[in-house]
Amino acid sequence: MASILFEEDALKPIRRKQLLNNLVDGLAKVRPGTIYAEVPRSSISYEFGYRKISYANFANAINGLAQWLHDTLGPAENFPTLAYIGPNDFLYNALMLAAVKAGYKAGGIFMTLLNAVFNQTPLIYPLSGVPLSTKIVLEALNHVKADSVLLAPPLVDEVGANPEMLNFLVKNIDVLLYGGGDVSQAT
């Protein structure tokens, strides 16, 4: 386990290579009231002001999420990669650092255009558990209404090969978009 090498000097900062988690924990310990971020109180307007998040709050959120990941997904073995589907907000930053603390890779955490389908509801999967098919989109469409869906070409091919999936999408969305490659002519 990495050790925290965090010291503070008013004249000259000590620069050492260390984990970002250790920097956050160090600032939370030495300067707990220092502001990490200011987040709008409302998701639709700035008129309600901003909530100040200190390094102590941020470190506490990271530790809580790391414990939640451990309790929910189990102990990490062989440093598995997590996939995150959700908005790029404060949770994204905390989750990225919490994943590392819980023994998961943070490099696989990503944001996607599926956010609109999932109505900004974050989902967290171990990457080995991410359904690599349109089933995740169909599942989401059972719960929320979407006007359009953006799929990668292999998933469009999957929809074209499955009449039930195609009929479901025809009934539930207005537009199916794809990008990133070619779709087979059979589709």
TrEMBL record:
This is Putative nrps-like enzyme protein. The lineage of its organism: Eukaryota, Fungi, Dikarya, Ascomycota, Pezizomycotina.
